[in-house]
Amino acid sequence: MGRILAIDYGKVRTGIAVTDELQIIASGLTTVATKELVAFLKDYLEKEKVMLFLVGEPKQMDNTPSESEALIAPFLKQLSAVFPNIPIQRVDERFTSKMAFQTMIDSGLKKQQRKNKALVDEISATLILQSYLYSK
């Protein structure tokens, strides 16, 4: 088996989370500058076997796509072109940023640490991945 890699795509930063090889545990991997995302993924896939990409799907409360979906669509095309053998699945990412922030509070992070937006993005990617694993 290979890993599942979750992507919380953002205009500036992108959070990334992965499973273990048995696809049981979701762990935050890192946050990368979005402009460096494809290069990061190429490097990562040289070292690790990834079976599936999960990409967060931002939606409004009425289930329509949010404005940031326009940023994600070109990335999805690029992702499937660069990695044609790895399927891409979308996962609803509503509330993940709020849940990530609450997770930081619950884990006892100090206010200054909670201002770290890169950490929020990484936790959001982990939440996206965890929700997928729960639904399996």
From TrEMBL:
Q: Which domain of life is it from?
A: Bacteria
What residues does the YqgF/RNase H-like domain cover? 2-100
Task: Name the predominant localization.
Answer: cytoplasm
One GO term describing the cellular component: cytosol
Tell me where in or outside the cell this protein is found: Cytoplasm
List the GO molecular function terms: hydrolase activity, acting on ester bonds; nuclease activity
Q: Which GO terms describe its biological process?
A: rRNA 5'-end processing
Q: Which UniProt keywords apply?
A: Cytoplasm, Hydrolase, Nuclease, Ribosome biogenesis
**E.C. number:** 3.1.-.-
Pfam families from the entry? RuvX
Q: What class of enzyme is it?
A: hydrolase
What is the purpose of this protein? Could be a nuclease involved in processing of the 5'-end of pre-16S rRNA.
Q: Which family does it belong to?
A: Belongs to the YqgF HJR family.
Please report the name of this protein according to its UniProt entry.
Putative pre-16S rRNA nuclease
This protein's species is Jejuia pallidilutea
